Every structure is written in C-alpha cells, then in structure tokens.
Amino acid sequence: MNRHHWWRDAVIYQVYVRSFLDSTGDGIGDLAGVRAGLPYLRKLGVDGIWLSPFYPSPQHDHGYDVADYRDVDPVYGDLDEFDRLVASAHRLGIRVLLDVVPNHCSSAHPWFRAALAAAPGSPERARFHFADGRGPDGGEPPNNWHAMFGGPAWTRVTEADGRPGQWYLHMFTPEQPDWNWRNPEVADEFDQVLRFWLDRGVDGFRIDVAAGLFKHPELPDSPDPEADARTRDSVNPLAWNQPEVHDVWRHWRAVCEEYTARDGRERLLVGEVSVPSAREHAKYVRPDELHQAFFFDLLGAPWDADAFRKVISEAMQDIAGTGSTVTWVLNNHDQVRTVTRYGEPAPEGSGLGAARARAAALLMLALPGAAYIYQGEELGLPEVVDLPDDVLTDPIFRRTGSRARIRDGCRVPLPWSGQASPFGFTSGAEGAKPWLPQPDYFAEYATHRALADTRSSWHLYRDGLQLRSALHQLGEGTLRWLDTQPGVLAFARDDLVCAVNFGTAPVPAPVPGTPLLSSGPCRSGELPGSTAAWWIDGS
Ligand code: GLC
Fold first, then answer.
1. Which of 308, 312, 304, 297 is nearest to 345 (CA)?
2. Going by CATH, does the domain composed of 479-536 fall within 2.40.50.140?
3. Quick one: which H or E segment has residue 50?
4. Strand intervals (E) in 150-304
5. CA of 61, closest atom in ligand 1
6. Nearest Cα to Cα of residue 496 among 519, 480, 483
C-alpha cells in the first residue's frame, strides 16, 4: 500500500544555495551552481532537493526576508536559470522543493512599504500587525512579546507627519514584518505564489515557520515572557500554533491535489513545525494537511540510547498514528553540525563526534519514514567554530549582543576540490573569496576526496541510500525494538536489523554474521563503540 506516495520514504537533500557552488565567481553560491552539482547529488542517490530561499531579498536573514515571492535575486540567477535547473533535475530523477516563507516578508516588500506610507487604520496596514503603543505617548510596545532572534517583537514607525507613530509586529528581526493572516488578501496572495511556482514545475514546498502565521486575535501579553526570551523555540502560546493555521494547510494541500489531478505528479508540502509535543506535531500531518513536518526531537536528542529510543517511540506512536510517516532530521542550516554537536563534551581530536554522526546517519536511514540531509553532512563536515566576529552574518549574533554564535558555522561554503580555499567552491579567478571563509582543514573533506575514498562519510551515505532503496520499501512500516544491554539500541524492520552502540566499549552484536553496512570498522559478532550497523537477520 501507499507505494505511489513517493514522499513517504523520500530522502531529500537540503541545498543552502549561497554555500553550495558558485558559478559566477562572486563568492556566493547560485542556481547555476546547483545545476552543476546535480550529477553529484544523483550519484549520492537522493530523491529530491530543497532549495533555501533565492528570492529577491535584502538578505538580512539570507533570503528568509523576501521582497518579491515571484522572482530570483540577481545574486542567485534569474527565472530562466531557475527553469533550467528544474528541467535538469527532473531529467536526473531529482525532485525540486522550494522554501516558501509565509509568516513574514521583508521590510522591503512593496506591500510593507505601502503600509508604512499609509495611515493608521488603512487597508495597507491591515495586511500586517500594526498597533498603537502603550504608555504615555504610545511609547511602549503594544504587548510584551519577544522576537525569536532577540529583543522585543515590535518596532515603532515614524508616521508621514514625522512623528513617532504605531508599532508593527515581527517575530524574527525588524526587517521581517509578520503578515496578518486574518486578512484574506494575504491568503489569496500566497495562493497565487504557490501557483506561480507550481506552474513552473516544482515538486513542492518546504514551509518556513509553519506553526506561525496566526497570532491570538487580541495580541494579549504573553503569560511567561521570560520563558519566551530564554529559548529559540516558539513557546509563546499566543504567538504560535494557533488552531486557524490548520485551515491554511488544508487549503494548500487542496491546491497541491489540484495539480496532481491534472498530471498525476504528487506535490509535497513539508512544514518546519516547532510545537511543544509530538502529539501537537501530529496534527500538522493529518491526511488533509501537510504531507510532512520535520520531526526536530531527533535532532534535539542528546547522544544517549534512552533519549533516542524515547523520541523515536513517541514519533512512531503519535505521528505515524495519523497515517503519515515520520520526517526525520538530524541537521539543517540553523543548527550546529552533527559532528560537532555529538562531539561535545568529548575531548577534541578524539574522533568521537565524527563516529557518532556517522552512526546517527545510519540509524536515521534505517527508520521508517522520510529523511532530510543538510548539505555537507554527507562529507562529515564539522561546524566551523572559530569564524571571526566581523564575518558573522547571522542576525541572531547581532541581536543578542554578540552572545549567540549559532548559525554561521554550518553555512560555510562547501569544499569541492583542491588543497586551499576556495576548494573549487567558486569558479572565480585566483583569489576569489567565498562569502564566509573556509578553514584549511576543509581540504580533507572536499567532495573529490570523499568520492575517491571508500571509507568516507560520503560512501556511507551513498551505500545507505542504495541499500535503503534495494531493501524493499525500508521507509514504510514500523519497527520492533530488540532487547539489548543498556547503552545499545537495536530494532528490526522485517528482516533488517539496525543496532547502535552509544557507548565507547565494544558490545556483542545483536545478530550473528558480518553486517551489510556499518558506520565504522565492524567484525562479525561485535559492535564497536559509537558505531551503527545493519544486518539481514536470516534466523
Ligand atoms: C526558519 C529558518 C531560519 C530563518 C527563520 C525566519 O526557522 O529555518 O533560517 O531565520 O525561519 O524566517
């Protein structure tokens, strides 16, 4: 059953366009670069790609501040190049997902400019959340909400007469005003945006901040503003996860189905859903809503067998219970890379982080459901932790008073070849500089080197992906936990057994014989520390 739903067990590769491959020599990756990299991705064996936003944007948040939802920023190419990319991807059997950003736009978006120019109470302002301030002269924000990237969620504007005026809401940076989804014009506009790209042949959308969009209609104070300020998770119950958002996903799903009915090609909606529990999460993937929603609890789990088992079991129970499959993620462009995350607090140079990242990848690929891989993870790239302050571009860094160095270190441009930066990333003349500096040690991870070395992470991913397709629908069905000693997880999927040793000392293997595939050297009968392996259980 369900075999025609390609997305249920798809493995999608996230292309962070700025940092993938630069075809123009300006040190910034672009769409033509992505097209040139497609054969590499085909070799790796992924089913599709998700492209980070490439729309015209002032780049305050690298494209998550969209000034025009229907075009390509000249830094990344143009619509013709986009069409060529989609055509080439499809010729290679690779599906293409776009990143759509419906919670907010850029302060440079024409509708927001029009709102600034218009008077309080005007239809132009009603597309956003404008409100009068509190306190004497309206000098205090309308409520106590915090922005996700630091500071208050409100910014005051100057009215046409030059006086300080109303405030507007922005759950991220001031350059990203939130849309007012209670205004039907906003919903209609996004309906048209989806159709614009679907007409150009895309296979679906990754939806940014998919638990956002609606706010409590009265915009009341948050019950616990301190908690909201402490975390990057969307915890303010009045600003996130409002019930009305589900109607939007039902509508978007219907739009996708309309296109499928025309040509039989199933389109995919995958939501970036951050909500408090797996049960809440499951609501987003009910049969008439999103096809998928990233299950971030796996990404958030510490390197610990019990923690992994708990989040996997919850996902299987709550999400798979909706009839959808779980969408597993271990990394993305907002997170510290797995090699570095799992390496802490291991002693530097112990190799533990790298071994654990490989094991986690093999575990993820054995789970029922779909999986997303962030670019560079297949190379085993570590986080670049020592970027100098003056090159950091993540708005979180500036907005938290330079405390949070979170998201630049995983966005450093990929190394492709050679011994020195730019490692083949940019086609530019000698000395062309990638937009973030690449460390010398990136040479070890270059794709050319990884392809030539059968022990590389790249080969592990490639072999895992190949076996996954060969092993009859590994992405469907459920899993059965096997009894193991503490610190080890093992589960069976029909006759495939996957086991992971979270400890550092070897343990007896749960299945006799040599594994089909393992994340590190593995002798028959034994599972070394920080290693995952797959066996076919013939017994
Ligand atoms: C999502 C994106 C992140 C962006 C934010 C605001 O979390 O993944 O990169 O900064 O939304 O759009």
1. 304
2. no
3. strand 48-51
4. 154-158, 164-169, 204-207, 268-271, 292-295
5. 10
6. 480
CA pair distance 361, 257, nearest whole angstrom: 32
The DSSP-derived string for 105-134 is --TTSHHHHHHHHSPTT-TTGGGB-EE--B
Closest by CA position to 203, among listed 121, 249, 266: 266
Answer whether 233 contacts ligand 1 (Cβ < 6 A): no
Out of 322-336, 473-487, 502-516, which region has the weakest mean confidence (pLDDT)? Answer: 473-487
Q: What angle do CA 17, 22, 24 make, to 5 degrees?
A: 125
Task: Say what the pTM is.
Answer: 0.96
Q: How many residues does the chain have?
A: 539
Residues contacting residue 65 through CB under 8 Å, at least 6 positions apart: 57, 58, 59, 104, 105, 106, 107, 108, 173, 175, 176
For 219-271, the pLDDT digits (tens) are 999 998 888 887 777 889 999 999 999 999 999 999 999 999 999 999 999 99
pLDDT at 539: 53
Quick one: average pLDDT of 292-311? Answer: 96
CA dist 381 and 340 (Å) reads 9
Q: Is the CB of 64 under 6 A from ligand 1?
A: yes
Catalytic residue among 258, 288, 348, 526: 258
pLDDT at 311 over 90: yes
Candidates 30, 99, 208, 272; catalytic one? 208
Average pLDDT over residues 315-344: 92
Q: Which two tokens stand for residue 137?
A: 């002269």
Tens digits of per-residue pLDDT, 78-108? 999 999 999 999 999 999 999 999 999 999 9
Domain boundaries, the chain: 110-169, 479-536
CATH superfamily entry for domain 110-169: Oligo-1,6-glucosidase; Domain 2 (3.90.400.10)
Kind of pairing, strands 292-295 and 327-329?
parallel
User: What's the pLDDT score for residue 472?
Assistant: 66
**How crowded is residue 187: how many other Cβ atoms within 10 Å of its Cβ?**
17
What is d(CA 370, CA 291) in angstroms, rounded to the nearest whole number?
11
Whether the Cβ atoms of residue 488 and residue 477 lie closer than 8 Å to each other: no
Find out whether 316 and 278 touch, Cβ atoms under 8 Å. no
Structure tokens at 432: 């062309």
How many angstroms is it from 149 CA to the middle of ligand 1?
10
Q: Is 294 in the pocket of ligand 1 (CB under 6 A)?
A: no
Residues with Cβ within 8 Å of residue 218, at least 6 apart in sequence: none
The predicted pLDDT at position 282 comes to 94
pLDDT, averaged across the chain: 94
